[in-house]
Amino acid sequence: MMSVVAAAYTLDAPTSLQEVYLRSNTSITEECDGLLPIVEGALPRELRGTLIRNGPGRLEVHGQRYNHLFDGDGHLHRFGFTDRGLVHRNRYVRTREFLEEEAARKMLFRSFGTNVPGGLIHNFLRTRFKNAANTSVLWHAGRLYALWEGGLPHRIDPLTLDTLARDDLGGMLRGDTLADRLLRGGELPYSAHPRLDPTTGELYNFGVAGGPTPTLHLYRQAADGTCIQHERTTLPAMGFIHDFTLTPRYRVFFFTPATFDVRRSLLGLAAPAETLQANAESTQILLYPRRGTQARIINARPCFAYHFANAFEDGENVIVDAARMDRVPTADTIARMLSGQPVDYPPPILTRYTIDVRTGHTDERRLTDHPGDLPTINPARSAQPHRYIFSIARPVDRTQPYSTGILKVDTTGPGSTFRDFGQNLTGEPVFVPRPGATAEDDGWLLSMCYDAADHTGELLILDAADLHTVARARMPIPTPLGFHGTWIPA
Fold first, then answer.
1. CA 375, CA 388: separation in Å to the nearest integer?
2. DSSP for 399-449, written as a single string
3. Dihedral sign from CA coordinates of 447, 452, 457, 461
C-alpha cells in the first residue's frame, strides 16, 4: 500500500487558519526512512535518545471520511537523536482492522465517531469497534506499545516500528464476563493515558467498559511490566473518562456530566460519540486510594477535561491541574471542524483545583488566559509538586480553535510565556530533561509542527527555559500532528 519515497508538495499560500488546519490533515500515503535536514540551529550533543509520536495518519478510508478526529488509523513517527544526526521513520500500526480494510479497500468497522456506510443494516448489533491504536505510545519495562481508548495495546518494535502483537499484557486484559465476551470479544479496555510513578517504577492505568453495567477497570503494573493489581468497580453511568492522574495516596478521576446512550450505540443507531450528551449535574471528582475501590467523591462545578497535567498533595489538600472546558465538545462540533466549517469549540484553560479532602470543598484558579491543551510537565515531578506546565496554545484574543504556539505556565504566579508560530500549527510538547539537570525546566521541548507555507512537517527542538529555537528539522512529508508521544532515553 505504502511507497517509500519522499515527495515534493507545492500549494498556494493558505488564506486562513481554517484552511491551514484542513491541509495539515492530509492523509499520509508514504512511509519514509532517512536523515532529516536541520534547517535552523543545531542538534544538542547531549540530546540522545528517541522520540516516538502517535496519532491518526489519515481521517478517511479509501474515500470514506471519518466524522471524528479519534477514528483515524494509528500512525507512528520515530525520531532518533544520534551522532549521525536526526534519523526519522514513519509507519502505520498494522492492526488487524487496518490490514482487513486495506485488503478490502473500504471501511469495514465501526469507530468511536463513525458508523459503517449503509445504514442500520450494516451497524445493527455490531459491538466490536475498530481498535485504531492511534492515541498514544507507552514505553515501559523495555517494551513499546501503541495505545487506544477501548481495547488492547499493540506491541511495537522500537527500532523498526513493525507491529509485533496485539498484546493482552500477560492475560491482564482478558475479560471473563458475558458482557466482556459478547461486546468486546473477551478484550478489556486499556486507556491511552497510563501514569508512571517515578519513585517506584510502577505503572497505573484504567479502562472503561461499556454495557448494561458500566465498569471502571483499575490496573497496576510492576516496574517489570507484570500485573500486580486489577480491580473493577461500577460507574454510575457510561461517561467519558479519557485521562486520570496520580498523587501519593490517590488515583484521581473527573466524572463529568456527559454520558453515552449505550442502547442507541449498541443497537447501531448511532456511533458512540454521536450519543454523548451533556447534562446539568455537577462534576464528580473521584479519589480512589491506590489500593481499593472505595472512592471519596467530591462535587465540583460542571466541566469537562480531556487531559490533566499532574496532581500532588499539600497536607490534606489534593491539587489537580487540568485543561478545563466549560462543556464537552459534541460530535457535531468535531465533524464540522474536520469539514472546515466554523465551530463554537469550548476553549480549554489550564486550571488548578485545590480539593480539601476533609471538607469536600473545592477551589478553582485559572493558571493562564491562553486556551491550550495537551499539557505536560517534567516527568520526574509526576505525582509530586511541580512548578512548570508546557502545552500547545493559541493567542488569548483568537477564538478559532487552532493551536499555533507553545505555552509555558509558571504555577507559582509570575505568569506565562507564550511563543506563537504564526500560521504554523503546533503539536504536543514532550519534555526531555538535560542530562545532570537540577532545575525543573532545564531541558528541551520536542514538538511536531505543521509548516503552512511549505505544506510539510517539522520537528521543533525548543529550550524549555525560554522557548527559543534550538533546532528545527524538516520532514519529507506533510503529516497530521497526531496526539501524544514519549521519549526513550539512549
1. 10
2. -S----EEEEEETTTTEEEEEE-TT-EE---EEEEPTT--STT-EEEEEEE
3. negative
Is the Cβ–Cβ distance between 158 and 488 less than 8 Å? yes
Is 71 within a domain? yes
Contact 283, 353 (CB under 8 A): no
DSSP state at residue 383: T
Q: What are 462's three cell numbers?
A: 525548543
Separation of alpha carbons 156 and 28, rounded Å: 19
Domain assignment present for 467 = no
Tens-digit pLDDT profile for residues 107-138: 999 999 999 999 999 999 888 899 999 999 99
Phi, psi values for residue 262, rounded to 5°: -60, -40
Interior/surface letters 441-455, b for 16+ CB within 10 angstroms, e for the rest: bebbbbbbbbbbebb
Selection from 277, 388, 402 nearest residue 347 by Cα: 402
How far apart CA 448 and CA 457 sit, in angstroms, is 7
- Going by C-alpha positions, the residue among 191, 196, 51, 150 that lies closest to residue 488 is 51
The vertex-86 CA angle with 83 and 89, nearest 5°, equals 130
DSSP assignment of 331-360 equals HHHHHHHHTT----PPPPEEEEEEEETTT-
240 in a structural domain: yes
Task: Name the domain count of the chain.
Answer: 1
7, 23, 324, 408 from 369: Cα distances, Å: 40, 28, 12, 12
Which cell goes with 315?
497536607
pLDDT tens for each residue of 237-292: 888 999 999 999 999 999 998 889 988 998 999 999 999 988 878 999 999 999 99
Write out the residue range of the structural domain in which residue 343 sits.
19-388+476-489
With bands split at pLDDT 50, 70 and 90, how would you rate the model's confidence at 9?
very low
* Range of lowest pLDDT (37-46, 205-214, 397-406): 205-214
What distance in Å separates the CA atoms of residue 324 and residue 347, rounded to the nearest whole number? Answer: 8
Amino acid letter for position 475: M
Return the closest-CA partner of residue 114 out of 71, 62, 73.
Answer: 71
The verdict on residue 351 lying in a domain is yes
Q: Residues with Cβ < 8 Å from 263, sequence gap 6 or more?
A: none
